[in-house]
Amino acid sequence: MAEIGIPQRPLRVAVVGSGPSGFFAAESLLKSLVVCAVDMFERLPVPFGLVRGGVAPDHPKIRSASRVFEKTAEHERFRFFGNVTVGRDITVEELRRFYDAVLLAYGAEGDRSMNVPGESLPGSHAATEFVGWYNAHPDYRDRVFDLSCETAVIVGMGNVAMDVARMLATPVDVLKNTDIADYALDALAESRIREIHIVARRGPAQAKFTLPELKEMAEIPGATPLVESDEFTFTPACRQEIEASPGLKRIVEVLEEYSRNRPGSGRNIRFRFFLSPVAVLGKDRVEAMCFERTR
């Protein structure tokens, strides 16, 4: 049996998915002691996954990670095949016949549902749609978002929620200097949204955003971050958790600063805690949301 993993007969690996996990895996394979040849398959015509389609356009430093992937893509034993859907254009079994190994690195596409009545009404959208829309993702660039209302509600308090809130709150004069999709910039220029509520089921100590994303809210021209003082509460156990974590303590300190702010004349970004969605209300489209207190 011929030796595998030498220049004359590299270990042939198929990587399905061209996001960060796929490219980091390809890089490791190409740098390994075993000589490998990597073919990468991607459903979209272009690579880089969430680095291209999931990072907010006002975060160019994070997007610059694609330069590392570009270096990998230039390797002589690397090939990229775009516009290929595994499972439709070629099956995993076929890949297994042609390659020594098949690595599935396409992630977990799909949205988490709130599982509440009215969630499917027009005007209710998954964050995936909105993020893909302003990033010109091929799957979402044809979406239409009604920004003619004055209030937007974002359920969830991770970094994606912060990205969405920031895109809604940032003036177009600032966004135009980013690589946001032109059609999204035009739509946001007509936005009438003035009140943005970021809602979490749990308290400030359990928020999932990171400190830089939180502090950015105070840097948006014309926007005021706010925290409801009656929702800014902690149990003894939460306070112990905060004291034990310098990073969490700093996040709570910033939220406390926001709790002292007064509503501004521009856009207000309201952090809401201890609220769980019960229903999305409306007849033909979203008109309101109903929440229940979790504490």
Q: Biggest sheet: strands side by side, in what order? A: 3-2-1-4
Please state the overall shape, judged from the principal axes of the Cα atoms. Answer: elongated
Please outline the major beta sheet.
Answer: 4 strands, parallel
Order of helices and strands: EHEHHHEHEHEHHHEHEHHEEE
Q: Give me the secondary-structure category.
A: alpha/beta
| Architecture per CATH nomenclature, i.e. the level-2 architecture of the largest domain | 3-Layer(bba) Sandwich
CATH topology of the largest domain: FAD/NAD(P)-binding domain
Report the average pLDDT across residues.
Answer: 95
Helix content: 25-40%
How many domains, in number, for the residues? 2
Total count of strands: 10
**CATH superfamily membership of the largest domain:** FAD/NAD(P)-binding domain
